[in-house]
Specification:
alpha/beta; Aspartate Aminotransferase, domain 2; Aspartate Aminotransferase, domain 1; 4-stranded antiparallel sheet; 14 strands
């Protein structure tokens, strides 16, 4: 019990997810008992769990076609390959993103070209328009669940004849003006890694309405000539022009992971509502905190907020670090995207030295004050309110200058 006058602390884990639902555990046990984990290893009359997941996810997003793969990063690389991206091609992407996004570009020998970031943590449309000429594609990252004005973005890209692949790792279940995230570009890529909106440890999904691109992606993923076993796939004739010339870069999802995911997909709308309740509770608790800027969410965005970001704009590094350290001492784990050296999953464009150094002053200014926090569904809204109180107190204290020397922050995954 907390003593009178003792500061509140939070004792929950920012990396602990909810258990896999019982229906997913039962489905996984069924796969384990029969042993047919490989997606093309089925008994007579059996439909593979992976094929069913693809069919259900296509219906969920409103896409014609869907492909389940081994990871979100593989989904990005597969989509780029299907689009014909290769060595020397310029591919645009957000300057504020995570390393697998430019990594997918660089792994093909292509050149990542970073586009500036706005204070809303979305891609800068003016910078995009300026860099679009001569680029082969835009790999658009809806980073940390923030969706830009997709109508304006598609107008810019259509004018430049620039195909768009959407990285929806943080926006599964989200939408722009009612159109699901991933359905504006030629292909949408999703992740089912543990910290995403569905959890299979690792995994990914690709959706598209383009029969040629999806036929290539299915061959790329390692279907051999077994593509007729896909149910959310283009018709057989779509494969005729590509099946002999498309390399196998195997990255299939297996039936075990698909079995775990199908019940989660059925429950996803309810889970999204729970994440947003946590987000709104933290947002309300931090509103009008001196020195802290909340991220504006546009009216057209239907978000799924499994993480929370705020800005400490133009704060000196020592004060930002003091907030992180003081929050950590009270049990609140924050990540900072402004550090000079990458730490955990946080890194910035100048950490990715497989890409050419680029001058991005607006992004650098945003990242210098950008603080990030996970919101796992193991938290309650009471937890979220407590976290907001702690952050409000510590940000206010540091902002007003009443700061002790920061302690060494504990390292967490």
């Amino acid at each position: 019990m907390r003593e009178r006058g003792e500061p509140e602390t939070f004792t929950g884990s920012f990396t602990q997810q909810e258990p896999i639902p019982e229906a997913g555990i039962a489905a996984a046990l069924n796969v384990l008992r029969h042993g047919r984990l490989h997606r093309y290893n089925t008994a007579e009359g059996e439909i593979a769990e992976t094929a069913l997941l693809e069919e259900e996810f296509a219906a969920f997003t409103g896409a014609k076609y869907c492909l389940a793969v081994a990871s979100g990063g593989y989904a990005l690389g597969c989509a780029l390959r299907a689009l014909g991206i290769g060595p020397g091609d310029r591919v645009l992407t957000n300057a504020f993103t995570l390393a697998p996004v430019p990594g997918a570009i660089a792994a093909l020998g292509a050149e990542p070209v970073f586009v500036e970031t706005t204070g809303a943590l979305t891609i800068d449309m003016d910078d995009l328009a300026g860099k679009a000429p001569g680029a082969k594609a835009l790999l658009l990252s809806h980073m940390r669940g923030h969706i830009c004005d997709m109508d304006r973005l598609m107008a810019v890209c259509d004018k430049a004849d620039l195909p768009v692949i959407e990285d929806c790792a943080h926006t599964m279940g989200a939408a722009w003006k009612g159109v699901p995230s991933g359905r504006h570009g030629v292909m949408g890529c999703y992740s089912t890694q543990t910290y995403k909106h569905m959890n299979s440890g690792e995994g990914g999904l690709i959706v598209s309405d383009d029969a040629d691109l999806m036929a290539k992606a299915i061959i790329l993923s390692g279907s051999y000539m077994l593509y007729p076993r896909h149910r959310a796939a283009p018709p057989p004739e779509a494969f005729e022009a590509v099946k002999y010339v498309t390399p196998n870069v195997s990255g299939r999802m297996d039936n075990l992971r698909a079995a775990i995911l199908r019940p989660q997909l059925a429950d996803l709308p309810r889970q999204c509502a729970r994440w947003n309740a946590l987000y709104r509770t933290v947002e309300a608790g931090l509103r009008s905190t001196p020195g802290l800027t909340l991220i504006d969410r546009p009216d057209g965005e239907q978000y799924v907020a499994s993480s929370f970001q705020f800005l400490l704009p133009d704060w000196p590094e020592a004060k930002v670090r003091a907030v992180l350290a003081r929050a950590a001492a009270r049990g609140v784990e924050l990540k900072w995207f402004g550090a000079k050296e990458p730490q955990g999953f946080t890194s910035r464009h100048d950490s990715w030295r497989y890409a050419k150094p680029q001058d991005l002053p607006r992004t650098d200014r945003i990242l210098a004050g950008l603080v990030d926090m996970r919101l796992p569904l193991t938290f309650t809204t009471d937890d979220a309110a407590l976290i907001a109180r702690i952050l409000r107190e510590e940000v206010s204290t540091v902002h007003q200058g009443d700061v002790q020397a920061p302690v060494e922050m504990p390292q967490a995954d």
